[in-house]
Amino acid sequence: MLVLGIESTAHTFGAGIVRDGTVLSNVRKMYTPQEGGIHPREAADHHVRMGPMAVSEALASAGVGLEDLELVSFSRGPGLGPCLRIGASIGRAVSLRCGIPIIGANHCVAHLEIGQMLGCRDPVLLYASGGNTQVIAHVRGRYRVLGETLDIGIGNMLDKFGRDIDLPFPAGPVIERMAIGKYEGTTDGILDLPYSVKGMDVSFSGILTAARSHRSKGADPALLCRSVQEISFSMLCEVSERAMAHIGADELLLGGGVACNARLQEMAGTMVRERGGRLFCPPRDLLVDNGAMMAYLGEVMFEAGVRHTIEDTLVDQRFRTDQVDVIWKEDRDLGEIRTLNTSTINEGEAPPFGSVIGRGAEAVITVERFGTLAVSCKRRMRKIYRDPELDSRLVQQRVRSESRMLRTIRGAGVRTPYIIDVDEERGTILMELVRGPRLSSVLNVMEEEEQRAMVRRMGCIAGRLHAKDMVHGDMTTSNFLVAGGDLVLIDCSLSERSTELEKKGVDLRLFFEVFGSTHGSISHMEADFREGYVSENPHVEVWEKLSEINSRGRYLGG
Fold first, then answer.
1. Is 463 a domain residue?
2. What is the domain range of residue 362?
3. Each residue's pLDDT tens digit, 221-276
4. Same domain, yes or no, for 106 and 207?
5. Residues with Cβ within 8 Å of residue 168, at least 6 apart in sequence
6. Residue ranges of the alpha helices (H) in 353-438?
7. DSSP state of 179
8. Strands 251-255 and 278-280, how do they pair?
9. CB 3.0 to 4.6 Å from 25: which of 62, 237, 410, 411, for a disulfide?
10. CATH number, domain at 177?
């Protein structure tokens, strides 16, 4: 099948030709503002002028004519409304003139699907672009967002930072060159900027604010570039690894324009190899916004049986990744979720000494001997992909925080492992060995009555924490152990005391976001979670805050 793909979500108008999964041409026309960021109307005017030219060049480069086309596919969203409408109009015109079918496809899914050409089987997808920062996996017939930015996309953050230090648009490539040019092979370190990770979500606004503050005090722009890159990319690698650990994946696929950055590719590759997995990254012309990816996705969708009429092709500025029914991919059967290279403890079982019983984004948990006792040893591994100074600081902070919060949470009446010994320098905590599996490993295969009991119990624990002004920070089913018919809460390194409704609302949002993705067959039991929560914390303000958070444009827009 010969397909024309059209991309027009933001600053780039792209036209590409794909035949039977092979890219024949890929033409891009980019709008560059004279100053500031993208002006939607000016970008749309650019697309009006350059769109027909891009289509003609793509056809000529592929050696085909308009009459040879069998399908046209375009970006229906998400993106800037005026820009989207130009691409849609050109797509409809081609469809009507040539009498061929039309597909209105999701821009984000196109970034993800084009990576499948590399041969990965079932990866976690790190999608990093101007307006989008998401960690995604294919679960239950859709691309599920396991984590995303809580404020602005990483590309937007880099562009805003670039404007602050007088860099041209787009700023990302210049920031990359400045960061490498001055500091490659040196030990100058990095500036102190916020490292904001909540479970599998990230936040970049604090980095931007702190970078501006450093700049106002005379900080060197190149050192600022290096610091912004190192910290923001470390955050992306951490949440990607946490997602891989949670669903038991051993592949990571990069997508989006920011993924063109060689340093991000290097860090992600190091992280994945440390886990014994594989990294996949498309070439640059397929990472950035382009028409070929739209043609490729359109062909995949059409061959899977998707059909659109002209009336179905209205653009949607807030077209989320997880709204698309991905009928062309075999569904992941999560069942008993297993983490790569770890042993699962059955309830009441005593695993052999030296067994690896947990492997998360930050730590490896082994069974060790302490006198005559079998204990669990949580060892925060040095992350080679992270700047050494940053890594050392994070390890010590999180060991200190976790040991303190485990005791505090236990004092609030929530069962946690007893702490036996803490060594901040070595990054280790010796704890009681809880003889039971992670809830994430077994919840999907429990009987319904037991599932409901476990979900209600998680709600009770969350409600009690929030009533005592504590937030967990990574409340997923991976961080509950099943023992003696009850739940034991673990991994409190991102936990904190807080009276802020925002943090409690985000805590709940993190839970529901990941729960719905990995336990979707029982997502109707979210009501049981709320029932348990309200039994411990009847105040409705937290749920009102959760509703307000979920209504924010950043979540709707992807």
1. yes
2. 356-432
3. 999 999 999 999 999 999 999 999 888 889 999 999 999 999 999 999 999 998 88
4. no
5. 32, 162, 174
6. 388-411
7. H
8. parallel
9. 62
10. 3.30.420.40
